[in-house]
Design goal:
The protein is of the alpha/beta class. Helix content is 42%, strand content 11%. It has a 6-stranded parallel sheet. Strands 10-1-11 form a 3-stranded parallel sheet, covered by helices on one side. It has a two-stranded parallel sheet with strand order 7-9. The protein is globular.
Length: 357
């Protein structure tokens, strides 16, 4: 990670974040580049902002990774199309709906349907899945299935989808181009605009520690997401996969990832910020640590056990297993032990409050 020297001090940046002025690029860099002692002050401030604006609730989203087929070849991703050592799977529409119903029966208010960019799941197939889940469970439905055309996004919204997660990964054009040999940054942004205009609650996010990334890059990513009006912000450390072109690259660090989580809470006081699986994969207890510095969402994995390990975006992936009542109880106990509470209902974002800082 290449550092950029901030032009304001950490104290000035923290004041800028909390007195109503809002953070600019230099302020964000100052927060991201701080040392250990200042990090603890940043974390405490972010945790207090989280408590004041979104409360102590932790929102649980049931994650179903229903297909690891993907047409794209992103340089960092373990399920990229050119990786021939992946055991590919694809749940049937009936299996997706059945698994979602299990999640509803376990008390989840939201299901997250995530996959690679799998063209087998056409506009009509996904619409039928969405409609069946919505009518039989009433759960909020979040999609994370990549880039599609506006008409497809509209059909899925009409079928009952509430939210869409589409990570930008980086807003730096050169870095995006190097990492995505068969993708286009402007096309990704156009998809996000279409989703927002169709009334989805829109989530995006970035990866921390990508080769060639700088603190200035990350700061500009944060500003772009703020100006766009992102409502859910998912971030995680870059973890190199051995079957990708970036196999020999250094991973991202948990410390910078946590500083970014805290900074995002200051920029998006009302936003939903997950404690992502990648944080737990990099550091035992990493997700709990993220919850203590501004995060307020966990996504327990409801993907059937027999295929769960094959959705390997990066190596040594850990998951919050929620496929049995005893494990759900354990998850609840871990959240309560942090002094937090379990959110009820779908957990929608207070859209009109977004963008304040």
């Amino acid at each position: 990670m290449v550092s950029s020297s901030p032009t304001i001090s950490f104290d000035e940046a923290l004041a800028q974040a909390t007195d109503g002025r809002g953070l600019d690029e230099h302020g964000i860099i100052a927060l991201l580049d701080c040392g250990d002692a200042d990090s603890e002050r940043l974390f405490a401030t972010a945790d207090e902002v989280r408590r004041r604006f979104v409360g102590n609730d932790v929102h649980l989203r049931a994650l179903i990774e229903f297909s690891n087929h993907c047409r794209k070849n992103c340089d960092y991703c373990g399920i990229r199309a050119r990786n021939r050592n992946v055991s590919r799977y694809r749940l049937s529409p009936e299996e997706v709906v059945s698994t979602a119903r299990q999640a509803a029966d376990s008390g989840f208010g939201t299901v997250v349907l995530q996959s690679g960019e799998d063209a087998w799941f056409t506009r009509d197939r996904m619409a039928c899945i969405i409609r069946a889940i919505k009518t039989s469970t009433g759960m909020a439905i979040t999609l994370g299935v990549g880039e599609r055309d506006e008409g497809t996004y509209r059909a899925w919204r009409d079928a009952g989808a509430d939210r869409f997660l589409l990570r930008i990964e980086t807003t730096d054009p050169d870095l995006f181009r190097r990492l995505h040999p068969d993708d286009d940054l402007d096309a990704r942004k156009a998809c996000l605009v279409a989703l927002r205009d169709l009334g989805y609650q829109v989530g995006s996010g970035v990866m921390v520690g990508l080769p060639g990334q700088t603190l200035q890059t990350l700061a500009r990513d944060v500003i772009w997401m703020r100006d766009f009006g992102v409502e859910m912000i998912g971030i995680g450390p870059f973890l190199p996969h051995p079957e990708t072109p970036l196999a020999q690259a250094l991973p991202g660090t948990i410390n910078l990832t946590l500083r970014l989580v805290a900074t995002l809470r200051l920029v998006f006081p009302y936003g939903h910020i997950p404690a992502t699986t990648a944080m737990g994969s990099l550091l035992p207890g990493g997700r709990e640590r993220a919850l203590a510095v501004g995060a307020n969402v966990l996504m327990p994995n409801m993907t059937p056990r027999a295929i769960r390990d094959d959705y390997a975006l990066y190596p040594d992936k850990v998951g919050l297993d929620a496929t049995s009542d005893d494990r759900i109880d354990d998850l609840h106990n871990r959240i309560l032990a942090l002094g937090r509470t379990i959110a009820k209902g779908p957990g929608h974002v207070a859209r009109h409050c977004q963008g304040e800082s």
